[in-house]
Amino acid sequence: MAIEVKVPVLGESITEATLGEWLKQPGDAVAVDEPIASLETDKVALEVPAPQAGVLGAHQVEVGDTVEVGAVIATIEAGSGAASAAKSAPAPEKAAAKSDETDASITLSPSVRRLVLEHGVDPSQITGTGKDGRLTKADVEQYVKSGAQNSQQAPLAEKGGATGAQTPPAPSSAGNRNEERVRMTRLRQTVARRLKEAQDTAALLTTFNDVDMTAVIETRSKYKDLFAKKHGVKLGFMGFFVKAACMALKDVPSVNAQIDGEEIVYHDYADISVAVSAPTGLVVPVIRNAETMSFADVENTIGDFGKRAKDGTLTMADMKGGTFTISNGGVFGSLMSTPIINPPQSAVLGLHRIDQRPVVMPDGSIEARPMMYLALSYDHRLIDGREAVTFLVRIKEAIEDPARLLIDL
Question: What is the CA radius of gyration of the chain?
Fold first, then answer.
C-alpha cells in the first residue's frame, strides 16, 4: 500500500511553500525520516522527510510549484528501489539536449546553487540527471570530482607522456552578452518586501560613532586559548557586542521597544537577532534572553546559527520574534553602511571592518589604533536623537573598557 508524502506544518502563520528541490527521484530507495525534498518558505528552507522506508513513487508536483500545508507531493511504495538509476536518469542525448535548451535560463535549487557558488563551476557545462534535465547536488559533486581528477592528470601530459600533444585551450568567448533569468526564492521575495515596507513605514535615521577595538583585541588575544579549551568555542568579537548591546538596551529601553498601533511595547528582555548570510539570502535567527547568557553561551549560539544557516537547517522557530538586531558587515569588508531595521523592531546596530587609523590621544600624541565605525539605524517615530546617540555611546564605552561588562556599568 502506498503512503502519501505530505507538506508538513511549516510554522505559525505560514500556510504555503515552494518546492525547491527533489532530493530523491522516482524509484529511489528511501529510509524512514530520510529527506526526499526541500521546501522554501518566506523565512527558511526545510526538508520533507520520508514517513516510512520504501521506494519513492511518482512526483506529484514540480520544482518551483507552490504547495500548501497538507498537500500530497509524492508517494512511497514498498520495495528496495534497486532499479532507481535506470528509472531516474534520462538518456544522455535527451539530457544534453535539455541542457542546451536551458543554458540561458537554468533554474537551480538553493542547495545546488550553493554548491555551484562554492566550487565556482559553470552550471551550463553540467549535464543534469534530474527531472526535465535539472541539476542535482550529485551532478555538481560528480562534475567537481571529475574536474579535480582531470586537473591532477594534466601535469602528466605536459611532461610528454604517452598521450602525445596537449589539448589546446578553448577559445575565449569575448563579446558574448549572455543573460540568465533565475526565479527569486520565496526568502528573497520576503526580504525585499519587508525591507521596502520598513522604508515606507518607519521614519528611518542613522547615527554613527567609532570605537577603539584595542581593549577587546588584547582581551581576546590573552584569553582565547583558555576560553576555547574551557568552553569548546572561539572567543569572537560578536560576544562582546551582544553583551554590550544588552547593557545599552537596559539603559535606553526605547531602542528595545516597538510600535504596535497607537501603543509602544517595551521589553524587559533582550532577544537579539543576529544577521547571518545563508545561500538563499540573509536570515536573522534570534539569541533569546541574551541578557542572561554568558560569553560562551552567546558564541556557541552564534556558531550554531552560522552552521545551520549554511546547511539550510534553520527553523521557523529560530527566527521568530527578536527585539533588536546586530548586523556585521565587517566580515565582508564593509567600511560603513546604513542598515535597515527589521520590522517590527525599532533599531539595528551595524558593525564594520576594523582598520588601523591615526587617533589623537588624550595627551595630544597621535597613535595608530584599530578602529571600527558603528552605525545605529532607528525608527525616529519612537527613538529620538538623544536616545540613539546615548545608546551608541554606551556601546562604545563597553567595548573600549570591557571590564564594564563584568561589573554592569
Answer: 26
